[in-house]
Amino acid sequence: MDQTNLKNERSLENFWMPFTANRQFKALPRLLASAEGMHYTDVDGNSVLDGTAGLWCCNAGHGRKKISQAVERQLSTLDFAPTFQMGHPIAFDFASKLAKIAPGGPDAKLDRVFFTGSGSESVDTALKIAIAYQRSIGQGTRTRIIGREKGYHGVGFGGISVGGLVNNRRVFPQIPADHMRHTLDIERNAFSKGLPANGIELADDLERLVQLHGAETIAAAIVEPMSGSAGVILPPKGYLEKLRATADKYGIMLIFDEVITGFGRLGTPFAVDYFGVVPDLVTTAKGLTNGTIPMGAVFASRKVYDGLMVGPDNAIELFHGYTYSGHPVACAAGIATLEIYEEEGLLTRAAELAEYWQDALHSLKGLPHVVDIRNLGLVGAVELAPRDGASGTRAYDVFVDCFKKGLLIRVTGDIIALSPPLIVEKGQIETIVSTIGDALKRAA
Ligand SMILES: Cc1ncc(COP(=O)(O)O)c(C=O)c1O
Fold first, then answer.
1. Which partner for 111 in 1, 99, 223, 225 could form a disulfide, CB atoms 3.0-4.6 Å apart?
2. Whose CA is closest to 108, among 254, 289, 297?
C-alpha cells in the first residue's frame, strides 16, 4: 500500500516498526509530536495523558529541562569517547552516584556498575557475568540459566532464552535454559490488592529444576521481581524470599531484572528495597535516564566483581562490552535524571500515591469484561475476558478508544497495563481510571 499521503505527506513506508503490526499501524497511524510533563501532543495537536511513562521509562515526566540542558552541555564538551582501555570522568562519576542509591542500600554491596545501551543488553550482560563468575570460582560446568514462564527479559538471544513469552521465542534458537512456572493465578488471586496471598509454593520450581538438571549445571536464575511486560504479574507473598534461599542452598546466582521496577516504580528506589531480598545482579535501563538517551546498567555485587578481578593485572577480566558502554551523553542524562529524582523525592513518591492508585484502579471492578485487577506501587493492570476466538482484540479496541479520548495506555493480549510517570497527580489518576472505565462500557 502506498503510505506517502498519510499525515502531512510523510511516508511511513521505510521505518520497520518494532513489536508493531506494521500494516495495521501504517493504515491508521498514531503519531506523537511533542511532550511536556504528564502529556504528549499528537501530530494533530491533541493532548494525550501519558498513562504508561512512555514505555515504563519517563518516570520524571516529559520535557525535563535539567536533562536536556545537561545533554546539550555534554554534547558540546565531549560527544563521544571510548571506554575500552580508555576512560572519561563522567562515566566514573555516574557509576559513583548510582552506587550511592544502589539496590538494597550499602549493606547489600551491589555497587559495581556495568553500563550497557538498553534493557536487553543489560540482561545479556548479567547472564554472561553470571556464567563467567561461576567459571572464575571453579564452577565452569554451570552454564544453564533458569528463567520463568511469561518472563520478559528483552530480545537478545540470552534474554529470549530465559524469557517465557512464546511469540518472542518460537522462531529463534536459544542458549541452555529452563523455566519455572509463572505466578499468575487468577482463579485463586483475582482482585488482590498488592501482593497475592497464594502461590509461594511456585518458588519450589527452582528446587524441582535443580533435581532435573543438577545444580552443577545451573549458573543463575533470573526473574523480574514484578513482571511488567507480560501484563503485570506479581510475586506471591514470600515467593522471592524462597527463591533466594533455594538459590543459596545450591550455589545458584540470583538475578533481578529491574528494567521496569528500577528507579521508583514500586515506591522504593528498586524492587530489591521493596521486597528486602538481595540478588547477586540487578539489571536496569529505562528510568536510568528517564528514557531520554538509550542506556542500561547492571549492578553487580562486590563479591561477583572481585571474583572476576583475578589473573595478571594486564589481563582483560571480562571479554564483554559495548561501544556505547558509559556513553558520555547518556551519563549526563543519567546524572541529571538522578538529581531530579532526588530533588523531587520521586524514588519514593509512588509509595505516597500507592493506596490512592489502588483504590482508584479497583473501582473498575464490576465493569464489563473485567476479570482481574492487579496493582503494586504505581503499576496497575486490568485484565479483560478475551473475545471468543479473537484474543487481544478487545483490549486493543479499548487502547484505541482511550487514545482517541486523550489517554495513552498499554495493552498486552487482553491486559491493560498502567505505569504513569511518578509525577502524576491524583486528578490525573482519576482521569486515567474514568477514561478506561468509559471505554470499557463502550467495548463490545
Ligand atoms: C524486565 C525487562 N527486561 C528487559 C527489557 C528490555 O529492555 P529494552 O527494550 O531496553 O531492550 C524490558 C523492556 O521492557 C523489560 O521490561
1. 99
2. 254
pLDDT digits (tens, 9 = 90+) for 378-388: 999 999 999 99
What gap in Å lies between CA 124 and CA 301, rounded to an integer? 17
Distance 379 CA to ligand 1 centre (A): 16
Q: How close is the Cα of 228 to the center of ligand 1, in Å?
A: 9
Contact 247, 221 (CB under 8 A): yes
- Quick check: 354 and 345 in contact, CB under 8 A? no
pLDDT digits (tens, 9 = 90+) for 164-217: 999 999 999 999 999 999 999 999 999 999 999 999 999 999 999 999 999 999
Instruction: Name the residue among 357, 381, 358, 376 with its Cα closest to residue 231.
Output: 381
pTM of the model: 0.97
CA distance 382 to 419: 12
Atom of ligand 1 nearest to the CA of 286: 10
Ordered by where they begin, the domains of the chain are: 31-60+346-442 (3.90.1150.10), 69-343 (3.40.640.10)
Determine contact, residues 349/356, Cβ cutoff 8 Å. Answer: no
Q: Which of 408, 428, 274 is closest to 356 using CA atoms?
A: 428
